[in-house]
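During the first year of the project, the team set up a workflow for recording each protein of interest as an amino acid sequence followed immediately by a discrete structure-token representation. This format lets reviewers and collaborators read both layers of information side by side without switching files. As required by the reporting guidelines, we include two representative entries from the current panel. The first entry is reproduced here exactly as it appears in our internal archive.
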Amino acid sequence: MNNNFKSGFISIVGRTNVGKSTLLNLLLGQKISIVSNRPQTTRNNIRCIRTTGTSQMVFIDTPGFHKPKSKLSDYMVEVAGESYKEVDVILFLVEEDTTIGKGDEFLIEKLKKEKTPVILVINKIDKITKEEILGKIKLYEKYDFIKEIVPISAMKGENINELVEVIEKYLPQGPMYFPEDMVTDRSERFVISELIREKILRSLKEEIPHGTAVEVMLMKKRNNKDLYDIEANIYTERENHKRIIIGKNGSMLKKIGSDSRREIEEMLGTKVNLKLWVKVKDEWRDKQNILNSLGYNKKDEL
């Protein structure tokens, strides 16, 4: 290994829906963290690994900071708050808007107390002019704890190489923590459950997706066949939501299953036989035993 090899942990923090997962997938060169236009899409800290000949970056994608409304929300905010403890670099992701909102102010107050280098990443610059980008930079230049400011567009891929160079600059020399072909420390089951949940988020009405969770019950390769059998439960809080998820004559569930299967096959590189069931778990977001069984357990995150 290169004697100058660098490695470290990088936390990506920001308000909900600022593009953290989109940026992470771009940095990795493949999709690991789910993406939708709904706030609070990411529920867990997800560790993802980018390895090159000169460095290994372990990124932590976090739930966005928001006002908790359930035990699940409490969990999401808590793991987000823990994500920037004991890391080497913090990426503070903000949007292209021309003000510093209350959510960003909340994060600024937290981050200014940290000794870890903070890199401000201004996302979605493809939506604004160069003059507006300079104006956004000026808003944050007064904060001493921000070491660098990098404007990017995660959607368009603008300035990503520059961002990587800045991150490497602040990483210490160190070992390769994970095998070089490893891209996440999460299991395939977890990634598959998240891909299915993404399709639910993209397909259903505003009030329903945040009341859903997905649990993969079976994942098994058939003997002597290039085929996986996967079975998963979709949990929702209400009977009428279950009917909406299934749809008329099963049309919505069929669409969710078909969209999910295509992406799972691409990820696994093999054919998939996917079966989905929808079950009601009343008020599951406020029941700790159910949250634990679904993997929303803070002890497992740290």
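The second entry, processed by the same pipeline in the following quarter, appears below.
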Amino acid sequence: MASLLKQLAAPIYNRMGVAYRAAVGQKLSKYGLRFDDLQDPLKDEDVMEALRRLPPDVVVARNCRLRRALDLSGKHESLPQELLEKQTPELSYLTDVLEEVRAERRERAQLGAPAPYTREYYLSH
């Protein structure tokens, strides 16, 4: 019975998911952000480690996008139309590295070793 409900609801959820992602993408484009910019390194240690592993120019570009978005939001403005057309919120720069970091964390957990970049690791050493 549960699998039947999942089969019936799956197409509806998928369409709603696509519509939601498009709406969020529009709002992110308004400020020049990408989906990966929403990842918070202060809340997730894996994101912090993934950002540390990225090339410096990618991290600098991320920080510039975040600063610009904060500035635009504070001014209650959005990007000019010519810049708005060039935005690519769906372009990912963090996902692959983040998956690699999370896979390493899972592997270390299976081996019983803590990840060397966790806050608990630094507090114990």
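For the second entry, the following points were noted during internal review. Residues 50 and 99 are 9 Å apart (CA to CA). The mean pLDDT is 87. Both points are flagged for discussion at the upcoming steering committee meeting.
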